Amino acid sequence: MNKWSGYKNLLPKSRLTPSTSSIANMWNTKYEIVSTRSHFNLQTGELNNPHDAEDYDCLNVPGFEGITRPDNYELILYIHGVWSGLFAAREQLGRIKLSLNANGYTDQVICYSWDSNTAMDPSGWAVAKSIADQNGSKLAKFLSDYRVKFPDDNIRIVAHSLGAKIVENALISLDQNQTWNKNSAYKITSIHLIGAAISDTATSKNKPFGIAIDNIVKSFYNLYSSEDKVLQSLYVNTENENPLGLFGMKKEQPAPTHYIEYDVKSEIPPLKNASGIYQPYSDNSVKGWGDNHSGYIGFRERYPSHKSLKDDGAVNLIVSDWKGKRA
User: Fold this and answer.
1) Residue 217, domain member (yes or no)
2) Exposure letters 161-192 (e unless 16+ CB within 10 A, then b)
3) Separation of alpha carbons 170 and 132, rounded Å
4) Under a CB-based contact definition with an 8 Å cutoff, are residues 263 and 314 in contact?
C-alpha cells in the first residue's frame, strides 16, 4: 500500500473543489435515488444508529413513496463507484442519462447512492470496501421489495468500479433466498459491470458470485478496459492482484453460463474531464484510448456547456446488449 504515496498528487485535496462548489446549483434537478447515504461511519465503516443491515431510503423512485410508475416501465439502476459524494453521484446519474438518451433509450434511471466518499488513502479504500460489502444486503432488500411489488418488470443494473462489490454481495445474498434461487420469474434481466474494482477471480463459476450469476441473472456482462490507468495503478498496487475491470476474468477460471465480457478501451477516448469538471485522480493519468476510469458512462462538455454530451463512452454497447444486438 505504500505505493499510494506515488499517486498522492493525483488525488483531489477535498470532496468538493472550488470549481465545483461555485456551480453546484446546476444540479438542482429532480433525481431518482435509492440511497444509503449517512448509514455508515466514513472513518470506521460501521453502521450508524438507527440503521440496520437491510434498510434503505427512496427519493422519487417510481412505485415507491407514492411516486407514479409509468406504463411499460423497467427498472434501470446505476451504482456508482468509490469516492463519489452526493454531488458526484448526481452528476454521474445525469451523465449516464445523457448517454442513454443519445442511444435512443429514454426510460428513467435510478441511482443507487452509497457512502463511498471515504478518505482517499489506503485506510479509506479499506473502509469503502467494507461499506460496499455491507451495502450488498441493502441492495438485495431493495431488489426483493421491488420484485414483490412488480413481478413482471425487467430489472437492469449498471455498476461502475467499486459498485461491483455491492452487486457481488447482493447477488450472493439473493442466491441464499429460496424465492430468488428457485423462482425463474425473480431473475434479474441484465447486469453490466464497467471498470469493476473487484478480484478477477470473483465471477468464476466456482465462486459464490459466479454461482449466483448463473442462478439469478439472465444476462451478465463485464465491460473492461485493458488500459484503465486507475485500475492499473491504485488497485493493482493496493490489492496485489488484477481487477476484473482491467483484463477481464482470470483466464484459467471457468465462466458462468450467462457471462459475457469484452474489452471496451476503443470506446473510451483519450479525453479528460469526463464529468465536465477536472478530476485529478483519473484525469492526470489520461494519455490514450481506454485510460479514463471515469469515461465508461460518457463525457460531458466542460462547464458551462455541461448539459451537452461530448462522447457516450461504452454506453452504446450497453444499449446494444439490452436490445440483443451483441452476442
Assistant:
1) yes
2) bbbbbbbbbbbbbbbeeeebeeeeebbbbbbb
3) 10
4) no
Q: Which of 132, 135, 117 is nearest to 42 (CA)?
A: 117
327 occurs within a structural domain? no
Residue 303 corresponds to which amino acid?
Answer: Y
Q: Please report, to the nearest 10 degrees, the dihedral formed by the alpha carbons of residues 316, 215, 181, 109 taken in order.
A: -10
In a domain, 21, yes or no: yes
DSSP output for 202-232: TT-TTSHHHHHHHHHEEEEEEEE-TT-HHII
One-letter amino acid at 18 equals P
Residue whose cell numbers read 432488500: 141
Domain limits for position 93? 2-322
Provide φ and ψ at 65, rounded to 5°: 55, 30
Q: In what helix (H) or strand (E) does residue 194 lie, and over which residues does it extend?
A: strand 188-194
DSSP category for residue 143:
H
What is the per-residue pLDDT across 15-54, written as a single tens digit (0 to 9) for each? Answer: 333 333 333 443 456 789 999 999 999 999 999 999 999 9
Task: Give the whole-angstrom CA distance, residue 244 versus residue 191.
Answer: 14
Domain count of the fold of the chain: 1
- The set of cell numbers assigned to 242 is 488484477
Rounded Cα distance between 264 and 317, Å, is 9
Across 32-49, b (16+ Cβ under 10 Å) vs e yields bbbbbbebbebeebebee
Look at residue 234 and tell me if it is in a domain: yes
pLDDT in tens, 82-137: 999 999 999 999 999 999 999 999 888 999 999 999 999 999 999 999 999 999 99
Gap between the Cα atoms of 276 and 258, Å rounded: 36
Could you tell me which residues come within 8 angstroms of residue 261 by beta carbon, excluding any fewer than 6 positions away? Answer: 221, 222, 223, 224, 248, 249, 255
CATH number where 242 lies:
3.40.50
